[in-house]
Write a structure and sequence with these properties.
Elements lengths: L2 H20 L4 E3 L11 H7 L13 H12 L1 E3 L4 E2 L10 E7 L2 E6 L4 E6 L18 E8 L10 H23 L2 E5 L4 H8 L5 E10 L3
Antiparallel strand pairs: 1-6, 2-3, 4-5, 4-7, 5-6, 7-9, 8-9
Helix pairs in contact: 2-4, 3-4
Length: 213
């Protein structure tokens, strides 16, 4: 491929990444996820680990799309099946994405990010210092209005469903050379208010993602 074309593609990707993280765009259409790459499953399992040191280097829109699809994307369009299971398939967990440009809600069916809060709330997603520097903090929220048919301890079920999603994030990061750590150490009331959550929504866990430092 011509070097000028390669440079042009790299420049467009860089500008797209910069605008994605710097400007509070109301609706971001993500690229189609690339389902062909990554390390073999057994190697990803071998390399899966938690890390609490992150570079502030930005992820490309493609990598962000791949990450979110791996976490909880649609892998069976006809049945609306997802990459992670949920009890009775109620799909009560939502993924919110805290970027420097704002807080977004991931729509796995449309493959979009919808702006919820037009300000950087990364620092509120946890008490650790690294959450402010890492480019992405995922927030897993259970919407219990979608879980009415569930019986038993709904919060425990939501915690299990979140665990499936979180592990998908771990495996994607291990496969793609990213660092991640799942976190339960945050001020739930403060974060809920910053996210403008409704009474039937509850934060289960948060998870930081970025390049290793």
């Amino acid at each position: 491929m011509n070097k000028k074309i390669v440079f042009f593609i790299m420049a467009i990707t860089f500008l797209w990444s910069a605008s994605l993280f710097a400007e509070a765009v109301k609706l971001i259409k993500l690229p189609q996820p690339d389902m062909q790459g990554g390390k073999p499953l057994m190697q990803a399992l071998k390399e899966r680990k938690s890390s609490r040191e992150f570079s502030n280097k930005l992820l490309s829109p493609q990598m962000l799309s791949d990450l979110l699809w791996a976490a909880y994307g649609v892998n069976r369009v006809e049945s609306k099946g997802r990459t992670a299971p949920s009890a009775m398939n109620v799909q009560e967990i939502d993924i919110y994405v805290a970027l420097s440009s704002g807080l977004y809600l991931y729509d796995s069916f449309k493959n979009t990010l919808e702006l919820i809060v037009a300000q950087d709330i990364r620092g509120v997603t946890g008490t650790q210092l690294f959450v402010k520097e890492a480019p992405i903090n995922l927030i897993f929220v259970a919407d219990f209005s979608r879980a009415e048919k569930l019986e038993g301890d709904k919060e425990a079920i939501a915690a299990c469903d979140t665990g499936f999603i979180s592990q998908n994030v771990y495996l994607y990061c291990a496969s793609s050379g990213l660092s991640t750590v799942v976190r339960g150490w945050f001020d739930k009331k403060e974060l809920s208010q910053a996210m403008k959550l409704k009474p039937n929504q509850k934060i289960i866990l948060t998870q930081t993602v970025g390049y290793p430092k």
